[in-house]
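Here is the promised in-class demo. Please do not try to memorize the tokens; focus on the logic of going from shape to residues.
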């Protein structure tokens, strides 16, 4: 049976559903999903103050139920250059392995490519290389939280992008270094 997945822009009315989904998706192996829920909430707070350049946030809907969520917001490269960063991508446990995450990422990357925006993320190299992500260290970009050269910190350059990639990155919810 083929499942029909609708991808739509997330709305404020869906926020409680999104938080429940994120918590459930990341509550595995003794974890409670608290960290990922906090990332979503803190990103919403930061993005609500940024009207100049909003991020990208989508949900996957099956049978009128939110079963997937992806959020990308602008972080900082070298404290001044904006870089779009995905955090997190979540799929309801009952719908994992059914193409929901792939549909969300494909839609997000289609939109970022159309806008000429490169994207970074922290995730599985095996999974995200399928979407064209490469270790960010190849472009001399580092994320100090995971250490220089960590293959899980990845970059997908937009076609034709000339935006800088060299330097130190931080997500929008993270405090600037002292």
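The designed amino acids, position by position:
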């Amino acid at each position: 049976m083929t499942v029909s997945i609708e991808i739509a822009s997330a709305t404020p009315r869906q926020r409680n559903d999104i938080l429940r989904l994120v918590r459930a998706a990341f509550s595995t192996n003794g974890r409670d999903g608290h960290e990922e829920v906090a990332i979503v909430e803190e990103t919403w707070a930061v993005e609500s103050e940024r009207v100049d350049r909003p991020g990208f946030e989508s949900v996957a809907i099956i049978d009128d139920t939110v079963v997937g969520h992806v959020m990308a917001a602008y972080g900082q490269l070298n404290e001044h250059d904006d870089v779009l960063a995905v955090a997190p991508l979540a799929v309801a446990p009952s719908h994992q392995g059914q193409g929901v995450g792939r549909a969300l990422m494909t839609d997000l990357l289609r939109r970022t490519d159309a806008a000429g925006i490169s994207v970074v993320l922290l995730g599985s190299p095996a999974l995200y290389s399928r979407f064209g992500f490469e270790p960010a260290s190849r472009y001399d970009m580092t994320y100090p939280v995971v250490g220089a050269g960590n293959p899980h910190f990845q970059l997908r350059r937009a076609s034709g992008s000339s935006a800088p990639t060299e330097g130190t990155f931080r997500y929008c919810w993270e405090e600037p270094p002292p």
